[in-house]
Design goal:
232 residues, alpha/beta, Alpha/beta knot, Trp Operon Repressor, Chain A, 2 domains, 3-stranded mixed sheet, elongated
């Protein structure tokens, strides 16, 4: 089972959309589990204070290391410790596959200006980023990470072939997708048809066409991925 622990100040943000659709059904089946902990539970003062001003001055507030330490120590089977951070390793499909094989993971969701560096150092917490932009907190990033991992768990997706042909699985972006009607007229009156090759029934030629399209799209839209693909 894929066991997930979330440490957050906003427990009502979980499971969010993860409680719906395929991930929600998988949660109900026990394919993965979710334990959400409010960091404020580990404060000793009546005001439930979890943050303080940054040493050295500056704007915002920083989550306190002693409180976070208690929250982590109070987590049963924390497993792999992760802090969602814009300075962390970029989340890609390779890392998603790696994480989905873990039995236990604990995700620490920061808020305000972030968390005290000493807690990262003390626990050697792994920092992971979902992109070069700033969110209001680690919760949306954690949901993104979990969604990408859960769909790879055995028994979640109905068709294993679906996963194997998706973007990034072979280092390329996915080929164009089409469905019925075979001919569709857009609002400018132009008839747009499904490529003939996809209607041929010739699976070998279709596979070759799809690979060609994936390579073309990757080269045009993501030259960084294309460079890695060609190198391999």
């Amino acid at each position: 089972m894929f066991n997930v622990n979330i440490l957050t100040l906003f427990t009502d943000m979980f499971p969010s959309f993860l409680g719906s659709s395929l991930s929600g059904k998988a949660l109900a089946k026990g394919i993965w589990s979710l334990n959400v902990t409010d960091i404020r539970e580990y404060t000793a003062d009546v005001h439930k204070k979890v943050d303080d001003t940054p040493c050295g001055g500056g704007a915002g507030m920083v989550l306190k290391p002693d409180i976070l330490d208690q929250a982590i120590a109070g987590t049963k089977k924390p497993g792999r410790l992760i802090y969602m951070s814009p300075r962390g390793r970029l989340l890609d499909q390779s890392l998603v596959k790696e994480l989905s094989k873990e039995e236990n993971i604990t995700i620490l969701c920061g808020r305000y200006e972030g968390i005290d560096q000493r807690i990262i150092d003390a626990y050697n917490i792994e920092e992971i980023s979902v992109g070069d932009y700033i969110l209001s907190g680690g919760e949306p990033a954690a949901l993104t990470l979990l969604d990408s991992c859960i769909r790879l768990l055995d028994g979640v997706m109905g068709n294993n072939e679906t996963v194997s042909e998706e973007s990034f699985e072979n280092g390329l972006l996915e080929y164009p997708l089409y469905t019925k009607p075979i001919s569709w007229q857009d609002r400018n009156g132009e008839a747009r048809k499904v490529p003939e090759i996809l209607l041929s029934g010739h699976h070998k030629n279709i596979k070759a066409w799809r690979l060609e399209q994936s390579e073309k799209i990757t080269k045009e839209k993501r030259p960084d991925l294309w460079k890695k693909y060609k190198k391999n």
